[in-house]
TrEMBL record:
This is Bifunctional uridylyltransferase/uridylyl-removing enzyme. It comes from Aurantimonas aggregata. It comes from the Bacteria. Signal peptide: none annotated. The gene is glnD. Its EC number is 2.7.7.59, 3.1.4.-.
Length: 954
């Protein structure tokens, strides 16, 4: 069967009406291919069936496929059409499968006239059956057999499959009769969906047509409700698995929320329920407007372009748009840098806007479905026939009513007649705790041009918006709906600039707008008492707030100036001073919001990067905060900000640091008055630990409590103190070195505790042991004890999915530690084969070294900021020791690819570094650690003497 004949089959592939039929001219010459295959068969003594002929066929096909893919990739660069690229790849695949099939029939098995029992249809199903393929896509084939099948069909299928496998394709396949296809499709929705998208590639036309007739009559007819329910449930499960957000900064282009699979799900349902064959037919069915149909095509084309480029760039079926790939794909798609935004950030912003469009289309589509299938509750969890809830009035308005527990418009002109209704609808929904009817959201999107300067300055509109922002029930839900509908970004243009904006770093998990909404959601959860056990301090502050408005406004605005050349905190404060009066805040509230925005990072930076036992740290922080009320608000804002960065970023240790900073600062701001003095808190902390250790003998318990210095009790969460106590108790068998391992899958870290004799180079050795195993230290806590030992707790970024694998890696690290401390190895050996980190390949971050004698009255503070990599902490601490500096405390912080390490140091006689020339040498030496990461670590050899640690090999 020729390509032209095949294209005339009844089950022709579904191609958008505005896209021309695929022309393979310049990509693949079918006649030349057939001529080559005929020549191989003619020149073979076995009529083309010999192993030698098979090898020649494979060589010919490999070359033709490679040339075709090169041509298709070049065309993708030129025209940018991802959908066209995917269809070209599928058409080339058609030719390859069909020609192998025909060659097998004519030459390998030499069967010119097939009997009824020898008929077979080679059917493309799934994505391939839809007529689109990415370069690395699986090839899904269904061999449809007649009721009585001879051995020939099995032989042809086997020949075809082995040829495809040898060509390097991943092939999913099944051989079934029509009866078996129908039976399995009834029982399995995956198989049903696969057969729904079918296309005859080669073989018997009538057999294929029979499958189509029976599938439509015996499977599809009368079952649309159950199919819709299954597909939507499958979609929700898939979204939940990926975090239920389309704004992950490393999205899955195929399976993620807002990705290709969501568009495919819409089309499967449409094809099944409305019996349409193209997306354009949904316009005729009244589901989409013509604009929305064009949006569907645009989104699909863009996503296919991204996916095809990803496969071409990596040479494999890569579906996750990881940091490693994003710069390359941005370059392939032709994005350029703009002031404040890198090319990759502009690309990813476009990606997330497309993902948002996919969400819009989903809601519009489901609105049409609901016209036929009423549901008892909001959400798309399944279709259950029920009587549609009778529309109910909303007190105080004639423009909106409640439709099945959703707010809906009463007519098509409610926004045109009164543009304030574009804000009022969200206020009414929040007030009455309603979801939004998709028809209302559709009308909102079609009315966005009404959000103009006049509406932005309208007093009622701003008052209503502020009510939504400070809603007592669920402000994040309604702000998110407002954002998804496009109203929020138009009503607050500065917010519109950060919609769908990603930050190209490995610290932030969400786009900027999604992060801001998640901070508001966190504050709402605190207000409702849902986080009281986890966040007792912040919960107490929120419950006592007299005016919640400035805090909510500050959360909405604290990162609103991201992506600008200026510092986003300072630029954000300027925006706050302009916007707050418009929203109705008075002068005092405006200045409070502006201060919170400008200094929203101060508390987290102080808590994590400064020595909280140093009095100068507390005094400097108190000087910035100035009042107790501002301190409480900043504490709450900081907690919400950190928790909304992403999973695993917030932990108990950071919470304890913030609590300690607050409690240390409180008496300074109140003139000495505090709910509890430092001494009282220390006594209570010791008593709490003593109470939890009540099973220990009194003498042993008292001796243990005397091991730790006061700062340990004030900065370490109680549960961690208990784990430390058990670890130290088990290690009290006379051994100078003990280690303990704990994995934490949820937070993505593995913890290693080390008990060893204290030594100036101990931290450097421990970091070197971690780096030698390729482990990266995310955080570290260093506790010196009164008996001359040190307890170091290191949190390592998780590498393996399996806990067993993680534990084995941690055991290698512990073995490294033991060998280093016993002098049986040196760090230089362990670090010789370290691999460059992911960040080193992707990010360009200039190192910054700063020495400060004003941050502490006793110590020189060295702040080191730069690109993280395995072994960096070991190199830095080793360099500090080489410089004859004594590290009194270290504060290790990792923000994705960036590390900020702060060391409180003195010289060897215990004084600050005051010489300018020495300070310059220190800066130059530490900068060299970043500039020459592969250089020798010869200075580390000398520190490996076992005598220095009092540890001998067993």
């Amino acid at each position: 069967m020729s390509l032209i004949e095949a294209r005339s089959l009844p089950a022709k592939r579904q191609i958008p009406a505005d896209v021309e039929e695929i022309d393979l001219v310049g990509i693949l010459d079918i006649e030349t291919l057939r001529g080559g295959l005929a020549a191989i068969a003619a020149g073979d003594g076995a009529n083309g069936a010999s192993p030698a002929a098979r090898l020649k066929i494979l060589a010919l096909l490999k070359q033709i496929i490679a040339d075709a893919r090169t041509a298709i990739e070049e065309a993708l660069f030129e025209d940018g059409s991802g959908l066209l690229c995917a269809r070209k790849l599928a058409s080339v695949q058609d030719v390859v499968v069909r020609e192998i099939h025909d060659y097998a029939i004519r030459h390998v098995f030499q069967t010119a006239n097939l009997s009824v029992g020898e008929r077979m249809a080679v059917v493309a199903v799934g994505g391939y059956g839809r007529g689109t393929l990415a370069p690395g896509s699986d090839i899904d084939l269904l061999f449809v057999l007649p009721y009585k099948q001879s051995a020939l069909g099995e032989q042809v299928a086997e020949y075809l499959l082995y040829m495809l496998w040898d060509l390097g394709f991943k092939v999913g396949h099944a051989s079934r009769t029509v009866d078996e296809c129908i039976k399995l499709a009834r029982a399995d929705f995956t198989i049903r969906t696969s057969i729904l998208e079918r296309w005859l590639v080669a073989g018997d036309v009538e057999l294929f047509a029979e499958l189509g007739r029976r599938f439509d009559a015996e499977v599809v007819a009368g079952t649309s409700e159950e199919f819709i329910a299954a597909k939507l449930a499958e979609r929700e499960a898939r979204h939940a698995k990926s975090g239920n957000t389309r704004y992950l900064v490393e999205p899955n282009v195929k399976e993620g929320k807002g990705g290709l699979r969501d568009l495919h799900t819409l089309f499967w349902i449409a094809k099944y329920h409305y019996r349409v064959s193209t997306a354009e037919a949904l316009v005729e069915a009244g589901v989409f407007s013509r604009r929305e149909w064009r949006l569907f095509v645009k989104a699909e084309d863009f996503l296919w372009a991204v996916r095809c480029h990803m496969h071409f760039a990596t040479g494999k079926a890569e579906e996750r748009l990881a940091f490693d790939l994003q710069p390359e794909i941005a370059k392939r798609l032709g994005y350029n840098s703009h002031p404040g935004l890198k090319d990759v950030e502009r690309f990813m912003k476009h990606y997330f806007l497309i993902a948002k469009d996919v969400g819009d289309l989903t809601r519009i589509f489901c609105a049409a479905l609901e016209e036929e299938h009423a549901k008892a509750a909001p959400g798309l969890k399944g279709f259950v026939r029920s009587l549609r809830g009778r529309a109910r009035k909303i007190p105080g308005t004639l423009d909106f009513h409640i439709d099945n527990n959703r707010i809906n418009v009463t007519g098509p002109n409610v926004f045109r007649d009164d543009p304030v209704n574009l804000i009022r609808i969200f206020r009414l929904a929040a007030m009455h705790q309603l979801e939004y009817h998709p028809d209302a959201l559709k009308l909102i999107r079609r009315s966005l041009r009404l959000v103009d300067a006049a509406l932005r300055e309208n007093h009622d509109a701003n008052s209503l918006f502020l009510d939504v922002l400070t809603d007592r029930f669920d402000p994040a839900l309604h702000l998110r709906r407002m954002n998804e509908a496009g109203v929020l970004g138009r009503f607050i243009p500065d917010f519109g600039r950060i919609v769908a904006m990603m930050q190209f770093n490995m610290y932030h998990h969400y786009t900027v707008d999604e992060h801001l909404l998640r901070t508001i959601d966190t504050l709402s959860l605190i207000e409702h008492g849902h986080l009281a056990d986890e966040l007792p301090l912040a919960s107490g502050f929120v419950n006592a707030l007299k005016d919640r408005t400035p805090l909510y406004v500050a959360l909405l605005l604290h990162d609103i100036a991201k992506g600008r050349p200026a510092d986003h905190s300072i630029a954000g404060a300027k925006i706050a001073r302009e916007l707050c009066p418009r929203l109705g805040l008075d002068e005092r509230e405006t200045e409070l919001v502006a201060w919170l925005v400008e200094d929203h990072l101060v508390m987290s930076m102080t808590a994590q990067q400064r020595d909280l036992s140093d009095r100068k740290t507390i005094l400097d922080f108190a000087e910035k905060v100035r009042t107790l009320d501002r301190l409480k608000l900043l504490t709450v804002l900081t907690v919400c900000d950190i928790r909304a960065v992403g999973p695993g970023v917030w932990n108990g240790w950071k919470g304890q640091l913030l609590r300690t900073l607050y409690l240390e600062t409180e008496p300074t701001l109140t003139g000495g008055f505090t709910q509890s003095s430092r001494r009282e808190r220390l006594v209570r902390a010791r008593l709490r630990l003593a109470d939890r250790l009540s099973a220990w003998p009194d003498a042993e318990r008292d001796a243990y409590l005397d091991l730790h210095y006061p700062n340990y009790f004030l900065t370490t969460p109680l549960e961690e103190q208990l784990r430390h106590a058990e670890f130290l108790r088990e290690a009290s068998d006379g051994r100078p070195l003990s280690t303990s391992i704990r994995t934490d899958r949820f937070h993505g870290i593995t913890e290693i505790m080390v008990l060893a004799p204290d030594h100036p180079r101990l931290l450097s050795l421990l970091a070197g042991a971690c780096a030698g195993a390729g482990a990266n230290i995310a955080d570290a806590q260093i506790f010196t004890m009164s008996d001359g030992r040190a307890l170091d707790v290191m949190m390592l970024n998780r590498e393996f999915e399996s806990d067993d694998d993680e534990i084995r890696r941690a055991e290698r690290i512990c073995d490294n530690i033991e060998r280093l401390l016993q002098g049986r190895d040196v760090p230089a050996n362990l670090l010789a084969h370290r691999k460059p980190s992911r960040g080193a390949r992707l990010f360009n971050l200039s190192p910054r070294i700063r020495l400060d004698n004003d941050l502490s009255n006793q110590f020189t503070v060295i702040e080191v900021e730069g690109l993280d990599r395995p072994g960096l902490l070991s190199d830095i601490t080793g360099a500090i020791s080489d410089l004859n500096l004594d590290i009194r405390s270290a504060h290790i912080s990792t923000y994705g690819e960036k590390v900020v390490d702060v060391f409180y140091v003195t010289d060897l006689i215990g004084t600050k570094i005051t010489s300018d020339s020495r300070a310059e040498r220190i800066e130059a030496r530490l900068k060299a650690v970043f500039d020459n990461p592969e250089g020798e670590v010869s200075s580390l050899v000398a520190m490996s003497s076992p005598r220095a640690f009092g540890i001998t090999a067993r």
